[in-house]
Amino acid sequence: MKNVAVVGAQWGDEGKGKVVDLYSARADLIVRFQGGNNAGHTLVVNGKKTVLHLIPSGVLHPGKICLIANGVVFDPAVFFEEVDSLVAAGAVGPNPHQFIKVSERAHVILPYHCLMDRLREEKASKGAGKIGTTVRGIGPAYEDKVARRGVQVIDLLRPEVLRRKLEHAIEEKNVLLRHYFEGPAIQLEPLYAECLKLGQRLRPFVADVRKLMVEALKAGRPILFEGAQGTLLDVDHGTYPFVTSSNTVSGGALTGTGMGPSAISQVIGITKAYTTRVGTGPFPTEIEVTEKETAELIRKVGVEFGATTGRLRRVGWLDLVALKYAVEVNGLTGLAFMKADVLQNFATIKVCTSYQLDGRTLLDLPSCVEDLERVSPHYEVLPGWGSFDPKKAKNLADLPRTLQDYLQYVEKFLGVPIVLMSTGPGREETIQIKDPFSDSCCCN
Ligand code: GDP
User: Fold this and answer.
1) pTM over 0.85
2) Ligand 1 atom index nearest CA of 302
């Protein structure tokens, strides 16, 4: 039995939630390793819609252990909102702390992080530096972590340490808030009282998550590492500075949990049959201006609006140059291919196979974001695949021949097998080609 990491291979919103939900059935432990409550998975339980931003979507599979590891920045207030809504919906029993655990080492998102995030975006929106964050305090919480003035989950359970850390953190923040942002200052006492209260409620959920994982590894219990956002949003390897604040690539699954490299045996990258991007930043295959009607059609049929923010997603053709980069930087061993159903009845389908820049052909993603902004995509134009019934497609052979050819083209270009083909949002609208949890999968 193997351990599998699932990561977004594009700019996020690839459909990780569905794949994680499917793979959760095969794992005993499901672990979030980076990001915060800026992930967004929509799940329907007993006819009720639940959007999870923080708790692993594996929570809906009875008997699974759901872990929030050290690499995550953790907002306790959001966490309890999600726990309460899951309990109210009857999705989980009355004792969720028995199977949801939060790392002692995870850094806490505090109200001042959200405040700073919002004020910073507001200020930047008047200039050119807007990142388009979800203003949930995630970036500022990671900043404090690296600046060594963060508050960790364990601190919420230690009143003296907590007070000292909060005092230290807000001293500088208040100078910034008053004089740079011209906003309200943070009052220590109410914040301290609120943190202690949240800490008390959190106590039964707090655990040494790394140790729980080590024990599971020793016992041969399969683990699913659940990535959030996407490769091109990685703080080190993405389109910096238009990125998120954490390592979204598979390496983040190791540092974000405290595991060694051998803990992960398969890395599955999720990609759509086209590309989307939320927020600002370079997007070589974007067609919002060049093929406006096609962009609007894809957005409408694919429901390309953010689950977390409702923001409109920018739409473009599949970018195989960027995807090849994702294969390399994550060490992908398999691909999950989503949403080909959205492109049904298109006469032709374009895929970008190289970029042009200043008369040169680029086969790789340039490191410099200013260059990436200037590239023009070179497309191969492939035949469309007409229509198919997603509910009836149980094997690849049930798909139109042109779609099968297209999948083979993508596999050959990237040198990675497609292990899962999603033909619709439903669980049953899936063709599982290879099982990454089995010992015979995939490339190694
Ligand atoms: P995530 O953040 O990567 O999990 O992606 P989102 O949840 O934001 O976006 C995925 C959306 O696409 C969800 O609403 C899914 O229900 C839906 N979805 C997933 N796979 C497919 C598919 O193959 N076809 C269609 N039409 N929708 C899909």
Assistant:
1) yes
2) 26
